[in-house]
Amino acid sequence: MKRALGIAIAIVIVVVLGALGWFVVLAPGPLDFAGGQTVPLAEYKEANPTGVPGALANAGLIERGEYLAQAGDCAACHTVKGGKPFAGGFAFKLPFGTLYSSNITPDKETGIGAWSDADFLKAVHQGVAPDGTRLYPAFPYAAYTLMTDEDVLAIKAYLFSLPPVRAATPPNTLSFPFNQRWLMAFWSAFFNPNERYRPNTAQSAEWNRGAYIAEAMGHCGDCHTPRNPMQAMDHRRKFMGAVAAGWKAYNLTPDKETGVGAWSDETLAKFISTGHVEGYGTASGPMGEAIDNSLRHLKPEDIKALVVYLRTVPPISDPALPAPRTALASASPKDGTAEADARGAELFAGACVSCHGWTGKSPVLAIATFTGARAVNDPSARNVAQAIVWGVTRETPSGPAVMPAFGHAYSNTEIAAIANYVTKRFGAVPSAITADQVAELRGQASQ
Amino acid sequence: MITLTINGESKQLDVTEDTPLLWALRDVLGMTGTKFGCGIAQCGACTVQVDGQAVRSCMLPVGAIGEGSKITTIEGIGATDAGARIQKAWLDLEVVQCGYCQSGQIMSASALLAATPQPDDKDIDAAMAGNICRCGTYVRIREAIKKAAGVA
Q1: Of A114, A181, A294, A356, which is most buried with the most CB atoms under 10 A?
Q2: B117 and B66 fall within a common domain
Q3: pLDDT score, position A95
Q4: CB-based contact (8 Å) between B50 and chain A?
Q5: What's domain A205-310's architecture?
Q6: Mutate to test the interface with A, among B65, B122, B128, B131 (most CBs of A within 10 A)
């Protein structure tokens, strides 16, 4: 008996050590895939990959800070839809409770108005508030830690130039042990190297700029890289696609079928900077917001650098996805509509077809075209269902474009029927999403 | 300046490319036969035809309409064969009640008849489902489409 207990304890210790070794000690960093030598920024001889692009070389501190705040997409989490900019209160709905983003306007009591430069640097680089409180890594300090002090302080100068908003952050409702903030000290020790960006001398200056934009600022991996059991990014599966805030963030690697390997540089640059390319679909959900709040504001030279960088990430196939179908569906509603699809087809005819068409090519708005979109080619139908529930609001070069939210109008059964009809009619592989799964998805979306 | 061909006539409009066709029709050209309903392509009241296809004009930016495209509105649909037959059937069966949605209904029904001369119930459902009628004239609409098609 004692012996069995001893063996069991030994096994547990080995498993724990093994997991620590695999996920912590041996885990690659976000940029390790590139190989080569890295050097401290001060020793780098090529063009400086940090700061603002050449187009803004003569801009003042606040203007530079605004650009960097957009590149870091601070607004994604610190501005609530319809709320005052950067006043916080955005709810992250997690399986173990709800976490709220904080007010980062210069209000002295409820915001960060009383913070010194050192306070702000410590929060952004280390995830520690001025009073020593540990911040949760929903705030992507493990990415922002790569930012130079100068860039962080430019962002601070921009935030402090905005009107202070008095808005207390709602208390989190996390359950034990997730409500123990001090535990984040261990998480940070494991997963936040607290180190500034080190340029890679084996790569071009443009690549280094793209890496800085993607890793230090845009924190693409926070949605597109799967997480390990300790909720840190697993860079062995870098950018292969993951679920975040209830939506699937698709594969950004150069994999030909399930990633962006088959996209031309122009297509990729256009998609990243506008959120839509004919034949490749439209960014919606959190990615639509990332384009509207952040990426569409980036200068073309930064978008180009981002593309150069994305091309070098190791290709990984997402086994959950087929190669997207690029052909139009039949113009006749009867084609491809079996008896089993009747409910979905009926609802689609009433609510969807006027904008999306029977072929999938929109008769009214180019961004409403389904053809080639990853979402309709995703056999989980996750993003299709989320788009139906929450609708889509996008800024386009010709003004705002809106798909209404149908979450209140239709039951989960109806939304599942529409989503399954859409993937069957327009995608490569039909989905079989259920009403229960739609109910779960409703609960996962952050807002 | 935007050039549009509406009911066979070429029109020059001083509007921005993102102006919805419905605004151009009603507010700029004074063609008020096409109605505003919901503004989000969910009711069908604003339906017109672009190259014979029924389209919700409230969501269609004029800049997205090709210069060679032919727009037909309720003011001009009677000049087409399918449109004339639909309008006659509408009168014969007294389809209309309050009438607000009916120009859209007629535009969708005419597009259906032109593309599918002998529509069955499923064709009618698929083509007309996006046109909502608060008076509930659906039964007469179905009957009138069949009468116009000669399948009643």
Answers
A1: A356
A2: no
A3: 84
A4: yes
A5: Orthogonal Bundle (1.10)
A6: B122
Q: What is the pLDDT of residue A447?
A: 64
So what's the ipTM on this one? 0.93
Q: What is the pLDDT of residues B43-95, one digit of tens each?
A: 999 999 999 999 999 999 999 998 899 999 999 999 999 999 999 999 999 99
Q: What is the pLDDT of residue A96?
A: 87
> Of the candidates B2, B45, B16, B151, which has an alpha carbon nearest to the alpha carbon of residue A354?
B45
- Give the count of beta carbons closer than 10 Å to the beta carbon of residue A1: 5
Distance from CA of B33 to the nearest CA of A (A): 20
Nearest CB among A349, A351, A365 relative to B59 is that of A365
Regarding whether B97 and B138 lie in a shared domain, the answer is yes
Domain ranges of chain A: 48-191, 205-310, 339-444
Q: Are residues B87 and B59 located together in one domain of the fold? A: no
| pLDDT at res. B143 | 98
Confidence band, pLDDT 50/70/90 cuts, at residue A172: very high
Q: What is the mean pLDDT of residues B17-43?
A: 96
Q: Please state, in angstroms and rounded to a whole number, the distance separating the CA atoms of residues A276 and A299.
A: 17
Topology (CATH) of A339-444:
Cytochrome Bc1 Complex; Chain D, domain 2 (1.10.760)
List the domain range (segments joined by +) for residue B47. Answer: 2-72
Do B90 and B136 share a domain, yes or no? Answer: yes
Q: Which of B21, B23, B40, B132 to mutate to test the interface with A (most CBs of A within 10 A)?
A: B40
CA distances A290 to A63, A268, A297, B35, Å, are 20, 15, 10, 36
Give the pLDDT band (50/70/90) at residue A81. Answer: confident
Q: Of A334, A351, A355, which has the smallest distance from its Cβ to B59's Cβ?
A: A355
Helix B121-128 and helix B138-149: axis angle, to 10°?
120
Among B57, B59, B120, the strongest candidate for a mutation testing the A interface, having the largest count of A CBs within 10 A, is B59
What pLDDT sits at residue A395?
A: 87
Whole-number pLDDT of residue A399: 78
Separation between Cα atoms, residue A87 and residue A106, nearest integer Å: 9
CB contact under 8 A, B40 and A398: no
Shortest distance, CA B131 to any CA of chain A (angstroms):
8
Q: Are residues B83 and B143 in the same domain?
A: yes
Residue given tokens 């096409």 in the structure block: B34
Structure tokens at A332: 């006749």
